[in-house]
Design brief:
The protein is mainly α and 196 residues long. The protein has helices at 2-55, 59-71, 80-99, 103-115, 121-126, 131-154, 158-171, 176-195. It is built from 8 helices and no strands.
Amino acid sequence: MKRSISLLLIAVFILSSCSYLNRIAESVDKKLSAIGKDTRKEDEALRRKVERLLGKMDYEGALVLIKRATRDGKPEIFFGDSYVKAIEGISKKGIKYYNSEKYMSAGKTLRRAVSFMPADKKILAEIKYSSEDLELFIEDSSAHLMDRGFKEYRKGNLGYAVSVWKGILEFNPDYKDAIKAIDTATVQMKNLKKID
């Protein structure tokens, strides 16, 4: 009889534990469901923010949001067409600067476009200009700016020439011709100061 009572008490304890565990599981399910709803709301809010920036043609702003979200774990494909629109928008803006002979703005804008390129191959396949295409524009912008600097250098405007070449290094930091020209002009400016 004692054994029956013990077994009965154990069964009651187990059943009450199960009931308690079920209540905990239900509570956790409700909380997870609420979190899921919050996440979906946050996702939609993020998509709307990106779309709003694209509507204002603030491609860089949209790309900053996208990159921040991908660093926080969102897959790039989550943004799909918006990512493509943003990259193409900033790329076209840079190419427009290039075609208008605004080479400094072109170089800086195109460098930003390259820095925002996605890793996802499906998205990359949808983008008109590849990183390699944009790098060609960047290199050509650098060459045009080198020429502009040399024209100023020949006129004796060494300070202005150096500022143009330093501008190249802002978007093309390893451009050896600019580094060499800056060094040469800087030495000449120091020598001229000694003469004065």
